[in-house]
Specification:
heterodimer; A: 247 residues; B: mainly alpha; 0% strand; elongated
Chain lengths: 247, 219
């Protein structure tokens, strides 16, 4: 079953073409890893999927909801965003709320579910990501790895069908990267549909069902991890891989 | 010339009435200015071009003309169209004046909040009002509370200008006293010190508030 359908998507910032005729399908339960040089349009693509960026042309359909070019765009987006969560490079936790409040806010005010129930669920999610003892602290006392795990828990509490990760480990100190990747691996094992922009090639090898390489707003190559790393066909992909794997 | 301290003591009960009125006008104007200021700030950052430029027009107009002229226009000009008391005109004029400055403070506070906060809230399916209510405003208030309070100090001083509308606040009353006792040096010196006392007291509390907010934010 397809949960994401992108057809001929175009996006420009002024004269700069960021996404150029993008086509992509994602099936339920798939873990898709997107790699590519900086400025290639990876982040912008994710931000188009949940309507944080307005697209110029083409269509995006997620869980049967039309993201682009609809008259009910605002209404559709609010509905859509309950199905597709996003984890940001800079965590973007709410600094004025405790860890627990960060996690419970949206389920409470958006989905209007009873607070006791949400808190119970939030506690179990936070202990699953290893932060059961941090529920009452404020984000600025957390390490980067802890903050990112809270951000993931905050998305999980919405019970989305799809979770997008926008370079979730790029702002982290090296020793904290694995704690975040481990949480992501667990999510993948549980069958969550994931779309990850990342430079963690080991994660991609181990966890991804499919890897796509994009450059200049176009998909250059896509394949299952084994073949992608061993026998990429395009010169651009090889060049990028040799740079990133030898660094 | 000798400093006649007894004149100050003699008229102190009268001055006290003026202090009460000054505080009343400042307080009421402060509340209204804050409410209007929030709306103007939201209009100023709105994507709606009409609201955006209307807010800019308001702010530029108010900040670019003297408060004295605004008060005279309010009471004697607009007063011709709508019947209003001097007190009403004075408070309205002060509120509208202060709101322009408060709006700019609040706008700066809102714009100081990282864009990632709005991205996160949006991606978690909050609508505009929820984002304002739960994410932007709580953070903006922490940033803007101290400068808005400083604006209240200015408001206390500016409230002396409504004396031209014959409202019996501190400055107006002191002028009345001087015409009676012919002791301008003593009375105006006393009035100056009274204003100084009011403003320094307020700024003492603002400094305490600032320290408390800093603790809350960094804890």
């Amino acid at each position: 079953m397809l949960v994401v359908k992108v057809r001929n998507l175009n996006k420009s910032f002024g004269d700069l073409k960021v996404l150029d005729g993008f086509n992509l399908d994602v099936s339920k339960g798939e873990v898709l890893v997107i790699i590519g040089p900086s400025g290639s349009g990876k982040s912008t693509f994710l931000r188009c999927l949940n309507g944080l960026e307005i697209t110029n042309s083409g269509s995006i359909e997620i869980m049967g909801i039309q993201v682009t070019g609809s008259r009910n765009r605002k209404h559709n987006l609010l509905k859509l965003r309950q199905h597709i969560g996003m984890v940001f490079q800079q965590f973007n936790l709410y600094p004025h709320l405790t860890v627990l409040q960060n996690v419970t806010l949206s389920p409470h005010i958006v989905m209007k579910r009873p607070i006791e129930k949400i808190q119970k669920e939030a506690l179990s999610i936070l202990s699953r990501v290893g932060l059961g003892d941090k529920i009452d602290v404020y984000p600025d006392t957390l390490s980067g790895g802890e903050a990112q795990r809270v951000a993931i828990a905050r998305v999980m509490a919405m019970k989305p069908e799809i979770i997008m990760f926008d370079e979730p480990t790029s702002a982290l100190d090296p020793e904290m990267i694995s704690e975040v990747l481990n949480v992501m691996k667990k999510l993948a094992e549980e069958g969550t549909t994931m779309i990850c922009v990342t430079h963690e090639m080991n994660f991609a090898k181990e966890v991804a069902d499919r890897i796509i390489f994009i450059d200049d707003g176009k998909i250059v190559e896509e394949n299952v991890p084994k073949l992608f790393f061993s026998s990429s066909k395009k010169e651009r992909t090889k060049l990028f891989l040799s740079k990133i794997l030898n660094s | 010339m000798e400093f006649n301290f007894r004149e100050i003591i003699r008229y102190f009960p009268t001055l006290l009435l003026g202090i009460k009125m000054t505080l009343f006008i400042s307080l009421v104007s402060g509340v209204f200015a804050t409410i209007i200021g929030i709306f103007i700030a939201l209009m100023r950052i709105s994507k709606n071009k009409f609201l955006h430029y209307l807010a800019i027009l308001y702010i530029e107009f108010i900040r670019g003309t003297p408060l004295m002229v605004q008060l005279l226009f309010m009471y004697f000009g607009i007063g011709l169209l709508i019947n209003m008391s001097a007190m009403f005109a004075g408070i309205l004029g002060l509120s509208i004046f202060s709101a322009a400055y408060i709006a700019e403070i609040i706008r700066a506070g809102i714009e100081a909040i990282p864009k990632g906060q709005i991205d996160a809230a949006n991606s978690l399916a909050m609508n505009y009002f929820q984002i304002m209510r739960y994410i932007i405003m709580p953070q903006a208030i922490r940033i803007t509370l101290p400068p808005v309070c400083s604006q209240f100090i200015t408001l206390i001083k500016d409230s002396s200008l409504v004396s031209i509308l014959a409202i019996s606040e501190l400055t107006y009353i002191s002028r009345k006293i001087v015409t009676r006792n012919m002791c301008p040096f003593e009375i105006y010196a006393a009035v100056g010190f009274i204003y100084l006392f009011l403003t320094t007291t307020l700024s003492y509390f603002i400094r305490r508030l600032e320290r408390r907010l800093k603790r809350v934010v960094s804890s």
